[in-house]
Description:
This protein is α/β, with parallel strands linked by helices.
Amino acid sequence: MYGFLDDDNTYMDAAxxxxxxxxxxxxxxxxxxxxxxDDFSDTVTVNYRDVAGGTHEKxxxxxxxxxxxxxxxxxxxxxxxxxxxxxxxxDAGFTYDYVGPFNxxxxxxxxxxxxxxxxxxxxxxxxxxxxxxxxxxxTGSLYxxxxxGPNGEEHQLRYSDCQNxxxxxxxxFFVSCLNGKIYGHGPGTDPASDxxxxxxxxxxxxxxxxxxxxxxTEVSFSNIGQDLHSIPAEYLPFIDDxxxxxxxxxxxxxxxxxxxxxxxxxxxxxAAQWSENRYMNYPPxxxxxxxxxxxxxxxxxxxxxxxxxxxxxxxxxxxMSSPGYDPWHNGPDDM
Length: 335
């Protein structure tokens, strides 16, 4: 189930992916977008309603979208992942939309520029890479402070909004709670009721057409105060451990594989496998193993993130590229 093929439960031996859709035609469409990835048009037409306005042609293979939900990233000091991936997108030769909680079009201190656009469904439809850091639920995602759904709803992308989206063959990675939920009990009730299958965010987003979605099947724990470690490590020469931990580590490690080490870890399966192994072997986590839980938080982190799609899927990142920007490591002993 987890890709552990021998008796060593602290090292994941194989990449694992799952194909799950509401029906056979949707599953066929996902596989079509995966295996004919190179044959799809270079651009998609996106009709913005809000600030940017009008019709725009987006080179989706070279365009990323980063979303930072206010409470998780700014109130809890975990803003660096969602902002630094924008620099990493640029380093890879891509453009990006950053959707943070403050204003539109303003330039932040680290150089990240807030998108001029508020329409999160349109932003998703123009991107080959979607990176989200924030709150999630079994029925919605992209919870923010200034962003709006297609019908003007504040703060989230609902499962029903996904039903009106047509996505390119993108890689979507939701580092949040429950955005990989496909079955079981919902949170917050006692006794907990089953999730409503037709209202699941995961399956409705998958039905909209990405090649791969990665998300947590249950509540995912964040590393509150992450910025207090990652900022000094990035800007002070005598500190080299960013201390990426909990789901901030998942964010850092997966995108590190995809964008900065594409030759060795550039498929989504290999990136997830590498992330799993790096997490389990980061000393503060005490080598947690899925089969033998020792420490609830870390056990959750290594079991709850799932890849929905072909693990051999490789996004449009040059395999021979060598990163000039790579802030996603935890010191010299990181794998």
